[in-house]
């Protein structure tokens, strides 16, 4: 199960000198947005060569809170539905389970938003038109950015940490929204969750890192996409946070794909991608 989920989800560098080209997209691989324990935190950038719309979309490379590396050139087609519409895509990797925990992964992806916003001119995007999406654990991280971000700490020594990590639109596929019922300390957690080391969290931390408890009226517009046959992350996760969004009048939508399980393939994936692109076009369009 974990293997199938991971497969589904998939600086100091000189951007131009490291760039490779795939069709009409310029690829800047392994851009370093931070360091931890002597390791580099990186993302790949996919920039449309023509008709770029100035908006940036971050993809959370995360399955089971495991962040897999693969050659950037292999990912170009994955992001084609977005780059074809002019979006610059950032494939963000975080400190990976089991070495790093969910709280650390959340801090990493927050930093990635701050770094991208701080360097928006370099990436030729609008710093106030940033979206984020992901599936499963990547969806959870996307929702954390949409519900629990901040404006930065003006007193921080690190200039990156002075920058806001807020995003302007979120798309979350089959996303966990309440870790309090998933972590190993939860009495009734599904046995399948024992396969995910990232869920070895106490209940206090599980609450802190559950998007559901952070919903407020200033959250980013959010699209939730689920399958009604999902037995790993039941659709109630998305239904509950959608109800919370509606209660405080956050622009949101819940799409249920009949017959789909935890992984979207074939026509299910085509529909999910179509809805994703439409959501970002609607909410990240130049004002």
Topology:
Elements: H1 2-8, H2 15-18, E1 20-22, E2 25-36, E3 39-48, E4 56-61, H3 72-75, H4 80-83, E5 88-93, H5 102-118, H6 120-123, E6 130-135, H7 137-147, E7 169-173, H8 203-208, E8 222-227, H9 236-247, E9 252-257, H10 266-283
Parallel strand pairs: 4-5, 4-6, 6-7, 7-8, 8-9
Antiparallel strand pairs: 1-2, 2-3, 3-5
Mean pLDDT, to the nearest integer, reads 92
Question: How many beta-strand segments?
Answer: 9
**First and last CA, distance:** 43 Å
Number of individual domains: 1
| Low-pLDDT runs | 1-22
Q: How helix-rich are the residues, as a percent range?
A: 25-40%
Please explain how this structure is put together.
The chain has 287 residues and is of the alpha/beta class. It has one domain: Rossmann fold, CATH 3.40.50. Helix content is 30%, strand content 21%. The protein is built from 10 helices and 9 strands. It has helices at 2-8, 15-18, 72-75, 80-83, 102-118, 120-123, 137-147, 203-208, 236-247, 266-283, and strands at residues 20-22, 25-36, 39-48, 56-61, 88-93, 130-135, 169-173, 222-227, 252-257. It has a 9-stranded mixed sheet with strand order 1-2-3-5-4-6-7-8-9, sandwiched between helices. Strand 2 and strand 3 (39-48) form a beta hairpin. The protein is globular. Mean pLDDT is 92; it is low at 1-22.
């Amino acid at each position: 199960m974990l293997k199938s989920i991971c497969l589904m989800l998939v600086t100091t560098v000189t951007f131009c000198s490291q760039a490779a080209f795939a069709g009409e997209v310029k690829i800047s691989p392994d851009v370093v947005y931070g360091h931890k324990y002597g390791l580099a935190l990186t993302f790949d950038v996919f920039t449309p060569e023509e008709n770029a719309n100035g908006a940036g979309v971050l993809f959370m490379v995360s399955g089971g809170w495991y962040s897999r590396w693969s050659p950037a050139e292999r990912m170009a087609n994955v992001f084609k539905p977005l780059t074809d519409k002019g979006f610059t895509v950032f494939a963000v990797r975080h400190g990976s389970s089991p070495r790093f925990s969910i709280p650390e992964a959340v801090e990493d992806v927050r930093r990635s938003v701050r770094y991208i916003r701080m360097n928006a001119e370099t990436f030729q995007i609008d710093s106030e038109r940033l979206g984020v999406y992901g599936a499963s654990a990547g969806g959870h991280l996307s929702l954390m950015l949409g519900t629990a971000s901040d404006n930065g700490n003006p007193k921080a020594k690190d200039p990156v940490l002075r920058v806001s990590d807020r995003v302007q639109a979120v798309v979350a596929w089959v996303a966990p929204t309440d870790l309090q019922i998933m972590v190993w300390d939860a009495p009734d957690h599904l046995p399948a969750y024992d396969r995910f080391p990232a869920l070895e969290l106490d209940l206090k931390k599980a609450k802190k890192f559950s998007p559901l408890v952070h919903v407020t009226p200033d959250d980013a517009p959010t699209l939730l996409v689920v399958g009604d046959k999902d037995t790993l992350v039941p659709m109630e996760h998305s239904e509950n946070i959608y109800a919370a969004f509606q209660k405080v009048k956050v622009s949101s939508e819940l799409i249920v794909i009949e017959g789909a399980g935890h992984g979207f393939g074939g026509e299910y994936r085509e529909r999910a991608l179509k809805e994703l692109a439409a959501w970002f076009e609607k909410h990240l369009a130049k004002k």
